[in-house]
């Protein structure tokens, strides 16, 4: 069981977080959740695909990192080789929580930071200090706060985005079959993407509607991100060659 | 038992749209404005019966839950701490206002009822429209105060102070307010800064049974205190930072109050200054602390213009008249230096 605690500068005065990336720290994963709020950054490195949450049946966005569940092709002994680490990874052991408070009769839900004390990145000897010497916030934790609020906004935006895409029938299943050699083929199941023909055929009114809602850019970023499949295949080839040599 | 013998000055003839606000603020002493809001619909409903007042309130209720204090019968309405001062002696939950009204009604005849108390709830957030027929004309004076409603059965809110100026209107039921000037603070033995029953430190003295061994200086406070016995329709003007204990004496009590500040919005909160001073000043060596007192007297507690007036205007910076831009600069600097 994860031990979640409300982050505070007395109980967690010596808390540090290991920010390097490695398989031991849980980074060797084939895909991670991503959110419309970071599509711009994510599409420069990773293919963005959609998947259905097995629990709720709702669509989610993922950044593809490899062709197997435990294969992150961006990860090697030097760390995670990419210009942008998805927020869900960069947040480390931290989670967003909410505290209710009444201000002038209005109930406000204020975001607060929780920390999973059993997370492998949690340390007191190694990594980035969370608090400054006298209890102030380090730059690191301020960056985490920004990442967490991005994830929180992204979750909201995601729901609205998929509702808009579904209403316009833009989502289609996609079969990803990657032939590495006569013996090695990877078939990725259960993914969806934007139907490019339908996106291009949208009439002016639908385009304007999607644009006003802020999701038109997202749709094109998802389409553009698929070019990264080629990069992923190259990374896979390189890894096979390294293994062979 | 010793009693507060002083009485708050009474002013007759005030109305919601006719009261000497300027003079009240200038004099800055409590004044009981007898019958000022007696014509309010809610006051009239309450004079007819508790049930009528409750129905009238419910007719405006929008269904939102409000912060509500629940105490057991054993606390006898005294919203206070537990024995060890580690927690409060009541629970705070969000509850529908209408349900709390029903609970107060259902326990109205209990010899020792549980305590129900809705404190300081913004009227417009839960009872929109109520102010149309029950309001004081502050806009004519250029103020836009925060208007709140307080609802409960028999309760005792221990002596505390609030930063803004206050006009407290006794609407349903009888109330007794016992007030003390700000300089009585040490004689009232304020409790912890946190937790507190309502956001403000409260006096640790049990006024109904003072322990003069523990709180000897409370005798001095008693001499400086004044009592206002309030009936439905009476309003009490209470200046900023005056201490007040509030006893709600009837089975069902409603108070509507207005809080307003005379200072521009860009100013910070003096309680934050106090916390900062506890952190950074209080425990310095005595000589040093007294030296800082001279510095504060010069820059802060003396005449506002003194520290800047001998300098050319362009060189005064924070020592000149405060404005929004200077306030922003000081705020940015403080944010920066506090985080260490």
Please identify the oligomeric state: heterodimer
Overall outline of chain A: flat
CATH superfamily of the largest domain in chain B: Cupin
End-to-end span of chain A in angstroms? 42 Å
Task: Report the sheet-strand fraction of chain A.
Answer: 25-35%
Count every helix of chain B, treating DSSP H or I runs of 4 or more residues as helices.
11
Mean pLDDT score of chain A: 93
Compact summary:
The complex is a heterodimer of chains A (245) and B (340). Chain A is an alpha+beta fold and 245 residues long. Helix content of chain A is 32%, strand content 28%.
Entry keywords:
heterodimer; A: 245 residues; alpha+beta; five-stranded antiparallel beta sheet; three-stranded antiparallel beta sheet; 7 helices; 28% strand; B: 340 residues; Jelly Rolls; nine-stranded mixed beta sheet; six-stranded mixed beta sheet; 11 helices; 28% helix
Please give the structural blueprint.
The complex is a heterodimer of chains A (245) and B (340).
Chain A (H helix, E strand, L loop, with lengths): L3 E3 L9 E2 L13 E4 L4 H4 L5 E5 L6 E6 L10 E2 L2 E2 L6 H4 L3 E10 L2 E11 L5 E2 L4 E2 L9 H29 L3 E9 L5 E10 L1 H5 L3 H9 L3 H10 L2 H17 L1
Chain B lengths: L5 E2 L1 E3 L9 H7 L3 E3 L7 H8 L1 H9 L6 E7 L6 E2 L11 E6 H10 L8 E8 H4 L3 H4 L12 E7 L2 E6 L4 E8 L2 E6 L37 H7 L1 E5 L4 E4 L4 E6 L4 E8 L9 H11 L5 H16 L4 H4 L14 H15 L2
Parallel strand pairs in B: 1-12, 2-3, 5-9
Antiparallel strand pairs in B: 3-13, 4-6, 4-7, 7-8, 8-15, 9-14, 10-13, 10-15, 11-12, 11-14
Helix pairs in contact in B: 2-3, 3-4
Description:
The complex is a heterodimer of chains A (245) and B (340). Chain A has helices at 39-42, 87-90, 139-167, 196-200, 204-212, 216-225, 228-244, and strands at residues 4-6, 16-17, 31-34, 48-52, 59-64, 75-76, 79-80, 94-103, 106-116, 122-123, 128-129, 171-179, 185-194. Chain A is α+β, with helices and mostly antiparallel strands and 245 residues long. In chain A, the strands form four sheets. Chain A has a five-stranded antiparallel sheet. In chain A, strands 1-9-8 form a three-stranded antiparallel sheet. Chain A is flat. The model of chain A has no long low-confidence stretch (mean pLDDT 93). Chain B has helices at residues 21-27, 41-48, 50-58, 97-106, 123-126, 130-133, 218-224, 270-280, 286-301, 306-309, 324-338, and strands at residues 6-7, 9-11, 31-33, 65-71, 78-79, 91-96, 115-122, 146-152, 155-160, 165-172, 175-180, 226-230, 235-238, 243-248, 253-260. Chain B folds into two domains: 6-260, Cupin (Jelly Rolls); 270-338, no CATH class. In chain B, helix 1 (21-27) links the parallel strand 2 and strand 3 (31-33). Chain B has a nine-stranded mixed sheet with strand order 2-3-13-10-15-8-7-4-6. A six-stranded mixed sheet of chain B has the order 1-12-11-14-9-5, covered by helices on one side. Chain B is an alpha+beta fold. The model of chain B has no long low-confidence stretch (mean pLDDT 96). In chain B, helix 2 runs antiparallel to helix 3 (50-58) and helix 3 runs antiparallel to helix 4 (97-106). Chain B is 28% helix and 24% strand. The interface between A and B is medium-sized, with 11 and 15 residues.
């Amino acid at each position: 069981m994860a031990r979640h605690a409300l982050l505070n500068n007395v109980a967690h005065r010596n808390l540090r977080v290991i920010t390097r990336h490695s398989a031991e720290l849980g980074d060797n994963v084939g895909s991670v959740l991503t959110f419309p709020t970071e599509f711009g950054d994510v599409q420069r490195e990773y293919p963005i695909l959609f998947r259905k949450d097995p629990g709720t049946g709702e669509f989610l966005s993922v950044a593809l990192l490899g062709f197997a569940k435990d294969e992150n092709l961006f990860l090697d002994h030097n760390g995670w080789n990419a210009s942008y680490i998805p927020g869900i990874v960069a947040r480390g052991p931290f989670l967003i929580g909410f505290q209710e408070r009444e201000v002038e009769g209005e109930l406000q839900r204020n975001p607060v930071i929780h920390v999973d004390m059993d997370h492998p990145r949690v340390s007191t000897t190694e990594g980035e200090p969370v608090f400054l010497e006298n209890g102030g916030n380090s730059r690191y934790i301020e960056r985490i706060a920004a990442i967490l609020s991005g994830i929180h906004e992204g979750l909201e935006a995601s729901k609205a985005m998929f509702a808009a895409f579904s209403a316009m029938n833009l989502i289609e299943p996609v079969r990803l079959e990657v032939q590495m050699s006569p013996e090695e083929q990877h078939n990725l199941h259960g993914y969806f993407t934007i139907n490019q023909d339908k996106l291009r055929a949208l009439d002016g009114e639908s385009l304007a509607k999607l644009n006003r809602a802020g999701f038109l850019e997202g749709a094109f970023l998802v389409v553009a991100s698929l070019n990264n499949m080629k990069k992923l295949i190259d990374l896979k080839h390189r890894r096979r060659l390294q293994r062979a040599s | 038992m010793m009693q507060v013998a002083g009485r708050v000055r009474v002013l007759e003839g005030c109305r919601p749209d006719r009261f000497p606000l300027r003079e009240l603020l200038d004099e800055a002493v409590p004044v009981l404005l007898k019958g000022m809001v007696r014509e309010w619909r809610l006051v009239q409903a309450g004079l007819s019966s508790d049930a009528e007042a409750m129905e009238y309130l419910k007719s405006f209720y929008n269904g939102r839950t409000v912060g509500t204090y629940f105490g057991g019968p054993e606390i006898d309405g005294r919203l206070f701490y537990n024995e060890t001062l580690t927690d409060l002696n009541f629970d705070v939950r969000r509850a529908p206002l209408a349900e709390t009204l029903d609970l107060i009604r259902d326990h109205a005849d209990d010899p020792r009822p549980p305590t129900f108390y809705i404190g300081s709830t913004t009227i417009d957030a839960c009872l929109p429209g109520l102010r149309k027929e029950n309001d004081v004309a502050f806009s004519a004076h250029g103020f836009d105060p925060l208007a709140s409603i307080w609802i409960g059965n028999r309760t005792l809110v221990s002596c505390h102070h609030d930063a803004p100026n206050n006009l407290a209107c006794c609407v349903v039921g009888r109330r007794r307010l016992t007030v003390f000037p700000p300089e009585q603070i040490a004689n009232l033995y304020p409790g912890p800064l946190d937790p507190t029953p309502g956001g403000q430190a409260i006096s640790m003295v049990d006024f109904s049974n003072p322990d003069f061994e523990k709180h000897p200086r409370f005798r001095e406070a008693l001499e400086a205190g004044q009592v206002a016995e309030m009936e439905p329709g009476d309003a009490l003007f209470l200046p900023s930072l005056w201490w007040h204990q509030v006893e709600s004496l009837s089975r069902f009590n409603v108070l509507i109050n207005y809080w307003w500040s005379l200072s521009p919005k860009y100013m910070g909160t003096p309680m934050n200054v106090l916390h900062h001073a506890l952190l950074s000043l209080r425990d310095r060596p005595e000589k040093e602390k007294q030296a800082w007192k001279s510095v504060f007297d010069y820059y802060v507690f003396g005449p506002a213009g003194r520290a800047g007036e001998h300098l050319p205007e362009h060189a005064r910076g924070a020592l000149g008249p405060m404005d929004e831009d200077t306030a922003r600069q000081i705020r940015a600097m403080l944010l920066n230096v506090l985080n260490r």
